[in-house]
Design brief:
The structure holds two protein chains of two kinds. Chain A is built from no helices and eleven strands. In chain A, the strands form two sheets. In chain A, strands 2, 4, 5, 6, 9, 10 and 11 form a seven-stranded mixed beta sheet that branches. A four-stranded antiparallel beta sheet of chain A has the order 1-3-8-7, with no helix packed on it. In chain A, a hairpin with a 2-residue loop joins strand 9 and strand 10. In chain B, strands 2, 4, 5, 6, 9, 10 and 11 form a seven-stranded mixed beta sheet that branches. Chain B starts with a strand and ends with a strand. Helices cover 0% and strands 55% of the residues of chain B. By secondary structure, chain B is an all-beta fold. Classes of the chains: A mainly beta, B mainly beta. Chains A and B meet through strand 4, strand 5, strand 9 and strand 10 of A and strand 5, strand 9 and strand 10 of B.
């Protein structure tokens, strides 16, 4: 199975900060990567697909990049609504794996 | 609007089975896969498997092979996930999610509200 490793596990930041989260795959997954945001007690929300394509309705301060085994999610200017947990997800041969999550906390 | 509405919370004893339902509306049920993902309290997301509502074809994560069964009733646009031989570690919120192919990436764009399954003696 392909393993997904996110870093950091927790990130403390202030409103207006630029934030970057990294996701590494144990083997190449081309660009078959998605990013989700999850708030407490809520279902995950799709932010990014195909590593860098922004889902409809998602603010442009969110961006994704990478291919192969290393990927990043960047929030260009952190907003109060962005404090949440973020997960990467790969799909290979219709078997999904999620990263362990990165919690973005208020500094 | 697309909605996935799941059945209510369940409490089960170890060794029992649970069946969670997921009723779809706002789109053609047979045109999109249904994925199931679970999340233990304070933990990350764990993919359980997928089902094609049109064909009934399924694919399960190795972790759940032999314990999980995903089915559907197309006449009422409802998907089901049954997990057997429950143990305390299966206590979690279970989500259904509509599967989509976005630019070649298989992911989920709409999710149910989640169903809490508690396994306790």
């Amino acid at each position: 199975d392909i393993q997904m490793t996110q870093s950091p596990s927790t990130l403390s930041a202030s409103v207006g900060d630029r934030v970057t989260i990294t996701c590494r795959a144990s083997q190449s997954i081309s660009s078959w990567l998605a990013w989700y945001q999850q708030k407490p007690g809520k279902a995950p929300k799709l932010l990014i697909y195909k590593a860098s394509s922004l889902e409809s309705g998602v603010p442009s301060r969110f961006s994704g990049s990478g291919s192969g085994t290393e990927f990043t999610l960047t929030i260009s200017s952190l907003q109060p609504d962005d404090f949440a947990t973020y997960y990467c997800q790969q799909c290979n041969s219709y078997s999904w794996t999620f990263g362990q999550g990165t919690k973005v906390e208020i500094k | 609007q697309v909605q996935l509405v799941q059945s209510g919370a369940e409490v089960k004893k170890p060794g029992a089975s649970v069946k969670v339902s997921c009723k779809a509306s706002g789109y053609t049920f047979t045109s999109y896969d249904v994925n199931w993902v679970r999340q233990a309290t304070g933990q990350g997301l764990e993919w359980m498997g997928w089902m094609n509502p049109n064909s009934g074809n399924t694919g399960y994560a190795q972790t759940f092979q032999g314990r999980v069964t995903m089915t559907r009733n197309t006449s009422i646009s409802t998907a089901y996930m049954q997990l057997s031989s429950l143990r305390s570690e299966d206590t979690a919120v279970y989500y259904c999610a509509r599967g989509v192919d976005k630019g070649g990436t298989k992911t989920s764009d709409y999710w149910g509200q989640g169903t809490l399954v508690t396994v306790s003696s």
